[in-house]
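Could you help me review a protein record that somebody else here produced? What it holds is a sequence and that sequence's fold in token form. I have pasted the whole thing underneath without changing anything:
=====
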Amino acid sequence: MSRKAEVYHNKVLAGYLEKTLAGTYIFRYHPDYFADPEAPAISLSFPKHQLEYQSPTLFPFFFGLLSEGVNKQTQCRLLKIDEHDHFSLLLRTAGADTIGAITVKTIDE
């Protein structure tokens, strides 16, 4: 089963991030967010267009939302997450109090 998350820009649903069973990462804008001419792209690396973005690794933009060093080690130990499981760490830590306008929230299926 793939794992999915909602991506918010300033508390507005901007799109979806998914890790497929094959390990591919996919980001796509929500249709309403895409259609809003006032809604900005979530980053320069994700210009607004209707196609989905795909990557064999977690996109650098989302990787940049993760803690580093001792903070990352502490989070992984407390949350019982492997330090190399960046997607799980993102889903568990980027739902609130992130630096900047982006938050990521797990979609429970």
